[in-house]
Amino acid sequence: MRIRVVSAHLLGAAAADEVAGALRRAIGARGAATLAVSGGKTPAPMFSALAAFDLPWDVVDVFQVDERIAPAGDPARNATAQAVLPGRFHPMPVEDPDPAAAAARYAASLPDAFDCIHLGLGDDGHTASLLPGDPVLDEEKLTVAVTGVYQGRARMTLTRPVLDRARQLLGELAVQHVGQPRISRNRKSDRVVDDNQLPLFLDPAQELFKALSSSQIDKLTPIQAFDLLRQWHEKF
């Protein structure tokens, strides 16, 4: 697992550079590329930066990692920000009155393996919409599934088997400096949490703190790293 540590204001550009590299490699090898992108606030600068890259976007298919089940144009929809990407965009069909059937159709449209999947990390430790305590977290048969209600909305999401098959996973995480702990109140238990307790923690000097050494982190796949963060959050 390779980790790049950049200043917060450069995070979007750095993530876009990583994604663009993955897309170029895929196009060079197979003549086309597939990308799945996540939502949330952190990725917005990455989408804008990536859209400016001079790529043959007509051979790039862009899918969603997850989406809230909400009407078209709803500000909660991830697609609103993701639509800036100039590739062939494939939004999740969350407006369908039968979400499970819609998820099955979306699953049938997925590539065998994505060239790149972009992931973020929610403030309760989830990635994609693989939510703590939701059965979808352990789904192994379906490649696209529908979650229970979370923060007021059910969601459609890619599942772990899809993430595990990706040729490249890119995790875009915004973390705090060691000297500037952020105190947050965990939604699950209302317990006050100090972010400096995170088991995976990087400072600008690229040193790894807390539970894992740098030699251990090198052996982790991105999805294993996300799992560790999720497990830590579940303790609270």
What does this structure look like?
The protein is of the alpha/beta class and 236 residues long. It has two domains: 164 residues, 3-Layer(aba) Sandwich (Rossmann fold), CATH 3.40.50; 52 residues, no CATH class. The chain is 28% helix and 17% strand. It is built from seven helices and twelve strands. The chain has a five-stranded parallel β-sheet. Strands 3-7-6 form a three-stranded antiparallel β-sheet. A hairpin with an 8-residue loop joins strand 6 and strand 7. The protein is globular, with a radius of gyration of 17 Å.
> For the report, how would you describe the main beta sheet?
5 strands, parallel
CATH class label of the largest domain = Alpha Beta
Oligomer kind: single chain
How many angstroms separate the termini? 27 Å
Number of strands: 12
Number of domains: 2
**Morphology call:** globular
Number of helices: 7
* H-E string: HEHEEHEHEEEHEEEEEHH
Estimated radius of gyration: 17 Å
Second CATH tier, the architecture of the largest domain: 3-Layer(aba) Sandwich
What structural class do the secondary elements suggest?
Answer: alpha/beta
CATH topology (fold) name of the largest domain:
Rossmann fold
